[in-house]
Amino acid sequence: MEPFAQAKVVAGWAGRNNKVHKIVTAGPGATTQALAGVLVLVNTGDGQGDLPGALAAYLNSTAAGIIVNGYGTVLSPGLIAAAEKSRMPLLVFPQAIEVQELAGSLTLVLELVKNRTIISFSEGYRLRQLTNLSQELPVLLNQLTAYLQNPAVLLDPAFQLLAAGMSGHGLTAAELGRLVKAVRPLILERRQSVPLAAEPYHQQLTGFHEQAMNCFVTPLVLAGQLFGYLLVFEDAGPVNVLDAGRIGEVGLVCLQLLINRRNTEEIEKKYKQQFLYDLLYNNFESTDELIKRGRYWDWELTGPQHLLVAEPDDFKQLRNKDRVLAALALFFETFLRSHFLQAIVTEMQDQVIVIIPAAAEKDRSAKLLIKNLANLLQANLQEAAFETTVSFGIGKLHSSAAELCQSFQEAKHALDLGRFIREKGHITHFEDLGVIRLLSHINAEQLDEYYKEQLAVIIEYDEKNNMNFLAILQMYFQQNGDLNATAEKLFMHPNTLRYRLKKIEELLDVDLQKLEIRINLAVACKIAKMHKTNL
What we know:
Shape: elongated
Oligomer: single chain
Strand content: 15-25%
């Protein structure tokens, strides 16, 4: 495992199986007392005065081993002889390694073997060999499956499949998919009651092939951060102690690979987000420049693009907002990758933006296609029991990617305005907003004046008599004047609704059967709702 593949044991090999349970960085104030089971990390660049003397003191202590970072001429023959005599492993690096990288890797090893409480240097060498055998997750999972004769899968934190071992067992890919789907809610339920930890556990599944089956769950966790799950379904037989050890080793390798992958993605993400910000806010000198920069990430931006903006409902009230947004973006990216050759997904301003190349359909077909996709995303979020509902705004399809900035503003507009004309979890296309699109561009003072002129009487009546005539009128127009549907929504008898609508007509001195009156009041009701939601 990097960076330890670069390290050499120069002395004390006889103590390679010393137990380690803690890591300590050497320093001027560090003590050599009570070091049993401790691995001492010595950095030659720390500016210590008598470093050879300090090393000699550690070699005479009860420490489990010493790692020297950037040894130079420090290690004299006397120090090497002392290490051999005390049977204390002495590891060195030809070149200095970043202390943070060393400490992080050491902590990773110790944290993920807590279930065994120890790790030996010989185990570490076997682990490096296993890492060097395969840097590809599918190959690694196939090796594990063949060894266990039980299917193994690797999932990301959103339970999307990253790799699966498909050899050496009798389950089909479809059956394996159903098992993953069945175990997901059980793992989520446990996460709500048990603190997130790296310790593996058994989870029982029922109703599969008319019999119970155990799943051996290994959360891939480091420093409280979840990177995924390694699952082994005990189809052919239970996992024994030796199997659990091998699963733990493979889990460690998977975790290291996932960490490396995430670190790389985080670096790329910064550059991608800057490019997408420029794209969505039209910060380009030319379309050619836009297309050229997009191709760096294999994004073909020569044609028209669909654009959606998604936002969790009640986002301001959610805890762990960053985590929720990241999980939503990951879910979209994984789902779309299996349906489209190209899909751009990014987080921006507490929203998730999705850009997808448009096919050659006519405008009407293209609109239906993108709305169906939004419905499909929403249905899969519900099926996956995502922790909150999500609303979508969709921009118009423009002729070139250079006009994505306009589609972006339209999608944001559709998302915001859709919140007061529809319920949570809405999907609103900009073209479906109708008159609301016009209202959103009129001066706020003019809108305020208009709705008060039309509705002031019943607003005042509601306040004085503790009634809800304005809400009744808004629901009546929302249900297209359908008395029965309106009564059902308001939990009111139709006769009661008729009486109250008659009272509203009297108060406003209008006839609701006249088209012009209905249009004026319907628009006023929409403005009132916009005013209430500060849109």
